[in-house]
Every structure is written in C-alpha cells, then in structure tokens.
Write a structure and sequence with these properties.
The protein is an alpha/beta fold. The protein has helices spanning about 5-15, 40-65, 110-115, 120-125, 130-140, 140-145, 200, 205-225, 255-270, 295-305, 305-315, 335-345, 365-370, 380-390, 395-410, and strands at about 160-165, 170-175, 230, 275-280, 290-295, 320, 325, 330, 350-355. The chain is about 40% helix and about 10% strand.
C-alpha cells in the first residue's frame, strides 16, 4: 500500500515529466504532437485545442480520400429495419430510475449454511465443486434476469452495484466513478487522491508511469471496498468543444490505446476491474444520448475503435462500457455487430460489457446484442415480458449472466 508521500511523489512525476521525444523505433514516443509537455492551467486548454485542430484536419483528409468506396464512404441511409419486438419504452422511463432495494428474510448463520447445501451457490464454483455452466443452468430464469441490471449502493459507493443474489451466494460488487481519481461523495468523509487527468497523463509519454498510477489508484479503490473503477475513458479528441476531453487521452488512437492499456494493467494488478469507456464514437456531450455518429468503416476502425482494440489485446480489461450515442443509426448498446462481432468475434474480448448509466436503449435488445448488464438500473419486467413472448431466449439471457458472474469471480 502506498503512503501519502509516495502518492504525492507519483503526482509530481506525472505533472512535471518533460522528456524529449526522440524515439525512432515506432514506439509510443515516436508520434509527434506539438505540445507534449503538460502545461498547467491555460496550457492544458492549448493542448486540447491543438489536438482538436489536428484531428479535424485528419478527419477531413479521410473524408476527401474516401469518396466512392464502400469501406471509406460515409453512410447516408442504411435502411435499417428493426427486429420485431416489444414497443419501445418511453424515454422518460429510462432516466434516473434507481435499483430497487431487495428485501431479504432474516436468517441465522446456521440457517444460511443449511440452505447453501440445497440451493445453487456460487461458492461451489469457487471451491471447484461444479463448473460455472452447471451453476448457471440451475438458476431460475428470473434470477438470471435479475443479474442483468444494476443493484443498490452499499458502503461509500454511489454509482451502484452488480450481482446481488445472496440467496445464491452472489455478492453485490460496487462500482465507483473516475477517471481522475476515485470519486466518493464528500459526506462519506473519505479522502482520495486527485490524479492528473488523462490528457496530462498522456503528455508524459510514459506508459510505465501511467501503469504505476493505475496501480496506486487501484489500491485506493480496493481499500474502499469497491470492485469496479469506471475508467479509463479513451474516446478520441475529435473536437475541442467536447465537454469531457479532459477525461480522454489524445487525438491519436495509438497514444490513447497505449496509455489506456497501461492504466488498465496497473489497476487490475490489484484485482479490481477496469471499465474502458465509452465504446464507441462518443465524441461530444451535446445531446449525447440521442446523437447519431455517422462514420465510415475505415475511420471507425483506424481512429475510433483502435484505442479499444489495443487495450483489449494488451490489457484484458474486466469490463467495457458501451456508449450513449447511436452509430450509423443503431444504439451503441444495442449494436450486435460492434459488441459481439468486432469486440468478441474479432478481438477475442473475454470480459463483460456494461451500458453507460441510464442509456436510451431497450434492455432486452441490449442483452440480445451482447451488452451484458444495464446500469444503473435494469428493467427486469421488460426482459421477462420479452422472454415470455419469445423475443429473447433463456440462452441469450444466461450467456450475459454468465459473463457477469465470470467478472465477479475475478475479484479478490
């Protein structure tokens, strides 16, 4: 565990690193950005604005070079026909609803131990008495659906939990926001380190330092009984007008990917989960839940997906967070091509996918696409109705539940 003095030393290293860019070996430090030193206060704005300018120029070049070819052309009307299903929820019912607190009958320790002998129990998987597949097969469909939504806060957490089926030995794993330090409400009376924001960390050109900061941050997360830290954010600095650019590393997907991978490795060395966000093309805050990012396949793969691909292949994150926006007409959280085809099929991602908090996607459609859990609150009744009407299968529900349980089993 790092002392306060050691954490202050780390902060100093991150803020005042001024190494020259001199590598010619194709490493992270061989990609030139005009302002690579983290100027403080107003200088940070200069970094972000210059990054936005260069990204704008790059995007314009890609668009000019892309005329007339399918791979490079911007989509116009993709003619999507939505799969038959339930009438979509009113968006007002998708905003800010909190997970219900589930009442539990009071039982003695002896009664709980006796019940564990007959009920399916996750501890049997931990102890090697049965496989996870065997455990999931024994759970009723209602319990599996319960796992697909966010759970109430406990302790100092304020961004809700995952799991929470104590009758089956499944704990409630808490989440906490980031990315510039573990975020706990002031009234809890807990002090945590305010680390430099992602843009400044990327300006160090030092993945080893970023990994060390990730490890130190992970220690703080762990000592506050949090299981998942909702960071790093690796969206591209596409425009200097984006209100969350300070959370993102760079306009360069290689810099963002290498920096994000280092952060994930550091955090997860403490056996707490990273949540790499926002997957993908979430490059503005205005109308962020309903905006449609129209992008060619070439730009998507070479710019907007590349950082995520690097992190998945180099750091094996426990979770990835899908974004609010639509991508070429499809909600990111409902996009099967993205979440199942590219993320899992092409990149071999083994972790769990969570939505961003209170998305406008339809819960059961997100599940079908491979988005394992809806945060901060699930809609069990909607998934249950879709299951009863044949719009989603138990196998699809069980697959997502199994990935959530796999993630829980990775925690200390």
């Amino acid at each position: 565990m790092k002392t306060v003095q050691e954490r202050i030393t780390l902060l100093g290293k991150a803020l005042f690193r001024r190494d020259d860019i001199c590598s010619s070996e194709g490493s992270i430090s061989s990609f030139p950005i005009l302002f690579h030193t983290p100027f403080l206060v107003s200088g940070v704005g200069i970094v972000i604005c210059m990054q936005g300018f260069f990204t704008f120029a790059l995007n314009r070049c890609v668009m000019r070079a892309s005329a007339g070819e399918t791979y490079e052309a911007l989509p116009t009307d993709n003619g999507l026909v939505e799969e038959e299903g339930l009438e979509r929820q009113d968006k007002l019912t998708l905003e800010g609803f909190l997970p219900a607190v589930k009442a539990q009958e009071r039982k003695s320790f002896g009664e709980l131990m006796e019940a564990a002998k007959t009920n399916p129990n996750l501890m049997n998987v931990v102890e090697g008495k049965e496989t996870l597949d065997e455990f999931v097969d024994k759970l009723p469909t209602e319990a599996l659906i319960h796992l697909l939504g966010g759970q109430p806060n406990t302790g100092v957490a304020n961004t809700f939990g995952m799991g929470n089926l104590p009758e089956y030995g499944i704990p409630n794993i808490m989440t906490a926001d980031g990315p510039a330090g573990l975020r706990i409400q002031p009234q809890c009376g807990v002090n945590t380190t305010a680390w430099p924001c992602a843009t400044l960390l990327a300006c160090t050109w030092d993945p080893e330092l970023i990994e060390e900061i990730g490890k130190a941050g992970g220690e703080e997360v762990k000592e506050n009984n949090i299981g998942i830290w909702l960071t790093p954010a690796v969206n591209i600095h596409r425009s200097p007008l984006c209100g969350r650019n300070f959370e993102y590393y760079s306009e360069d997907p290689l810099v963002a990917g290498k920096s994000g991978a280092a952060m994930v490795r550091g955090m997860q060395s403490e056996h707490i989960g990273a949540s790499v966000k926002h997957f993908c093309c979430n490059n503005k805050e205005t109308n962020r839940k309903d905006s449609d990012s129209r992008v060619s396949e070439r730009a998507l793969r070479e710019i907007y997906l590349k950082a995520f691909e690097i992190i998945v292949k180099e750091a094996d994150p426990y979770t990835i967070m899908s974004s609010y926006n639509l991508i070429n007409g499809v909600q990111a959280s409902e996009n099967k091509d993205l979440l199942t085809g590219i993320l899992r099929g092409e990149w071999d991602f083994k972790g769990m996918v969570t939505t961003d908090w209170w998305t406008h996607g339809e819960h059961y459609r997100e599940t079908k696409a491979g988005n394992d859990i809806k945060m901060a609150n699930g809609y069990e009744e909607r998934v249950q109705e879709a299951f009863e009407k044949g719009y989603i299968t138990r196998d699809e529900i069980a697959l997502c539940a199994k990935r959530i349980l796999t993630m829980i089993l990775r925690m200390d």
